[in-house]
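Sample entry as discussed:
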Amino acid sequence: MSIDLTGKKIVLGITGSISAYKACDIVRLFIRSGAEVRVVMSEAACEFIAPLTLEALTRNQVLTKETQSWANSLNHIEITRDCDLFVIAPATANTINKMAKGIADNILLETVLACNKPIIIAPAANTNMLENHQTKNSLKMLAVSDISIIEPQNKLLACGDTGNGALAEPSEIFWECSKILLKESFWENRRVVVTGGGTREKIDDVRFISNYSSGKMANSIATALYLKGADVCLITAAKHDELPKNIYTIDVESASEMLDFTVDALRVAKKGIMSKPSLNNPDAIGMIQKEPYLFMVAAVADFTPSYPQVGKIKKNDIGDNWEIKVKQNPDILKTINKNGIKTVAFKAETDKENGLKNAYDLIETKGVDAVCYNHISDENSFGSNENEIIWIADEREIALGKKDKLSLSLDILNMAKEL
């Protein structure tokens, strides 16, 4: 999935961690998305990776103790003045503890103290150093001070220990930074349920009835919502390995499972979200009530075997012909209680003549607020990375065009805000 960060300005701070080399991958992700990147490095960071490497990647001179100048903007006061985000990755335990106490004894920490833009850090340190009560208290203090923290990984560390402390994957750092840059007040702290994938209806323990849905459109919708700041619950029968790990995901198989989890997720969504205190708003604790949304993107199987079997049915026991008795699955959109939520349905049709009319009928027959209609053809087939959607709502239709599914999802969210 490609994210457009054109026009965004990011300052990347690098501290003296063995994982400093991963900063190159982080820079590449930002540059590839269209963002402008400038880098500031502590003296210890320069021992792990050469500033020249970052200059080659960013096409900007790196701010270090040696390069700081007061004749231009390459200094700890000016470098973050017009940036959109200051991300420190990796952030050592030493840096974390000093930041919490307002210490500025190197060029990077001086930059932190002078920065009045959003700051996000990605810790990387030995497990014992991160679990030390001083560091844990410092992380709590930074969180209350509106500094975002990207959780480290639990894995084999460079020191040979296994535990929590490895730098988060560059892709995850990119996701979390993009979320800060792209979030919108409309979607922020709004609970949204998304269903995706083609359900699988069990025949026996090795066979099932399903369809060609890849789940990519649902994954893109969930990702777009996450980037906009929504609290997303993705209920899916498809793969979702490439999604941001902080998207809450429920794996399901059958239509009945999807129905049960969707009903439960909507019940939770209607309760609202607990707000968090900060230095700017210490009394913020309370329920944030925003109308939830449901994006019904899943391709739910219409029928399921009446008598699913345990084990594998042998071919010799079946014979030359196999008649499987099936029954209709419950219609999820008809079954759920849509009071107090906005519902967007997805309708895929191969019938070019009647497909659009069938999509319009969904609004009347299933009580949804809007429909995303796409005509399935050889040029617009299941599993592709692009889609073509017609948005239907309020007795009118808007062609959103054909584009990659994440870009299309962002367009759909803009339309959904008007419901």
Observations:
- The chain has a mean pLDDT of 91.
- Residues 391 and 398 are 5 Å apart (CA to CA).
